[in-house]
Amino acid sequence: MTLEFFLRLLTAFSCGVAIGLERQMRQRNAGLRTITLVASGSCLFVTLGVLTGNGVSGITQIAAYVVSGVGFLGGGVIMRDKGSIQGINTAATLWCSAAVGVLSGAGHYGPALAGTVIVLLTNTVLREVSRMINSTPVANADLVRVYMLTIVCREADEIHIRTAISNSMYSAPLSFQSLTSEDVEDEPGRIRVTATLTMHPKDQSKLEQMASRLSMEKSVSSVSWTAREAEPTPE
After folding, report:
1. Is residue 104's pLDDT more than 70?
2. 143 has which bridge partners?
3. Which of 30, 125, 152, 183 has a CA positioned 20 to 30 A from the CA of residue 39?
4. Which family does it belong to (predicted)?
5. Do 7 and 95 lie in a common domain?
């Protein structure tokens, strides 16, 4: 049993070193020593359940406590920097390292080694894939932007302008969230019609064409539009 114990611990240690080296080379908060300690510690806790003869249920219970403990440890490496979250990937790596340690402690060497390979592939190969995706042009990204089109026209032609806006959107085609009208201060007899649209930035040229057509209406004195920052579309 002593030889088996050392074999399990050595497996957890080796897997932890392999994962930790990759994190250390990238200068992450949780590097070589932290990852190795998490993997080895998880192995020791599970091995304790084996040595005390608690059976499968006891080992499973200890593994659950290990996962909870590593969750608190992972929370410590997640930081907020100027509104952005940093360290989530490192925390996930800690979590996976604990899983590798638990598998090693339970004597499942093949799955432990396979888990190590998956973690390394995720942090290396998929890292480059993520960079390639992030570098794609905005036109290819799944983003939406809120636009506000404002037209000032004669009060008598309000209905005509609202109809023209609706017809232009249907022919583009575009869709709007709202279409409102209000009096223009200091300009009696003038109405401000505002259309709020949500669309992909690549369709901005359609909005520009629509604004150009509306500006040719006799009753229109001004046409303008503004855009807010792009946001990911909800899934």
Report:
1. yes
2. 232
3. 125
4. Belongs to the MgtC/SapB family.
5. yes
Give the three-class secondary structure for 181.
strand
160 and 102 within one domain = no
Q: Is 29 helix (H, G, I), strand (E, B) or coil?
A: coil
What is the residue range of 66's domain?
Answer: 2-134
For residues 9 and 101, membership in a common domain is answered with: yes
45 neighbors 105 (Cβ within 8 angstroms): yes
Token pair belonging to 169: 């959107």
The verdict on 57 and 144 lying in the same domain is: no
> Token pair of 15, please?
């897997």
9: CB partners within 8 A, 6+ apart:
40, 43, 44, 47, 104, 105
pTM assigned to the model: 0.52
Total domains present in the chain: 2
pLDDT tier at 233, thresholds 50, 70, 90: very low
- Per DSSP, helices labelled H in the chain are 2-25, 32-51, 55-77, 88-105, 109-134, 158-171, 204-215
Q: Do residues 169 and 175 lie in contact, with contact meaning Cβ atoms separated by under 8 Å?
A: yes
Is the pLDDT assigned to residue 51 strictly greater than 60? yes
Q: Where are the alpha helices (DSSP H) in 135-203?
A: 158-171
Task: Mark whether 105 and 16 lie in a shared domain.
Answer: yes
Question: What would the mean pLDDT of 125-149 be, rounded to a whole number?
Answer: 71
